[in-house]
Automatic annotation (TrEMBL):
Compositional bias annotation for Polar residues: 25-40
Protein name: Agmatinase
Lineage of producing organism: Bacteria, Pseudomonadati, Pseudomonadota, Betaproteobacteria, Burkholderiales
Keywords, alphabetical: Hydrolase, Metal-binding
Gene (name only): speB
Domain of life where this protein originates: Bacteria
EC number of the protein: 3.5.3.11
Database matches in Gene3D superfamilies: Ureohydrolase domain
GO MF term (any one): agmatinase activity
PROSITE patterns from the UniProt entry: ARGINASE_1 (PS01053), ARGINASE_2 (PS51409)
Pfam hit, one: Arginase
Annotated spans, Disordered: 24-45
InterPro entries (alphabetical): Agmatinase-rel (IPR005925), Ureohydrolase (IPR006035), Ureohydrolase_dom_sf (IPR023696), Ureohydrolase_Mn_BS (IPR020855)
Family: Belongs to the arginase family. Agmatinase subfamily.
Amino acid sequence: MNRFTGTLHTEIMTSALQKDPFATDSAQATNRSPQQQDPASPTYAGPLSFLRRPYSRDLTGVDVAISGVPLDLATTYRPGARLGPAAVRAASVQLAELGIYPWGLAPLDALNVIDYGDCWFDAHRPWTIRDAIAAHARTILASEAKMLTLGGDHYITYPLLIAHVERFGRPLGLIHFDAHCDTWPDEHADSLNHGTMFYKAIREGLIDPARSVQVGIRTWNSDFMGVRVLDAPWVHRHGTAAVVDRIFEVVGDAPVYLTFDIDCLDPAFAPGTGTPVAGGLSSAQALEIVRELDGIQLVGADVVEVAPSYDQSDVTALAAAHLAADILFLMRKQPHP
Ligand SMILES: [Mn+2]
């Protein structure tokens, strides 16, 4: 080794030590600004929080808390949505780096968002799960933060609605994207069923059917309980602009909760889910509708039913991440009612 090479090597080593990625705070990956080129935390590495927001349980000054509810004990067909929150988070990190179209970076800059991590519940004591999820939501909603929750099967929306109604008053309007109405009769108060929770929510006065709308439905129910249904054939026939008009007509300026079951999308766009039904929306149609809902009085939202084991090339998780990011930005203008 000659003198020149040795000097150069020393300089490189000194420089590398000063920039040692392992010497930096492990939270660096989640604290960096979007689009920041940081070799210590490439897109695919480090803690894969939603949109690279910091993992935190400090709700001080937080506008929106992302959290996961990794439950799939209420499914009627294929399980696997317990792995949904992790998959959607992982799919979201490249959105954070590129800036989310068409919003750019400004909305996220103006919104203090954390990733609160996952709700803990005891899967082996299923009768405790409803209250565990409600308690998780109450803790977050006791602050000024709104919730954007990643499922998990769709049952989680029921305890989330219980906590939201306690916080925001009852009943709430519901904007519900799904292949399934989830209003099938169920007289068992303690059942874990991802097809009946809106039957319970309407019966218990948690949501107002007159201020509620379902989009993308393509399964039969003899009684939709007074909820306005824009079924999938109606969406395909009339287009996304008409859907948006009808949603605003139904919900008006009422406080609303938005729930997006990823099986609203056609299995061609979202194969990674537990109860797929052909004939659904494309991811482009769904994104177009969600983006045009700017101005609704959104008090909370979830994206549910991503089951990564049945996914192909992460296409379902990616669609869910895009939808969740756009729903997040719908929260940016609305102060607490
Ligand atoms: Mn569904």
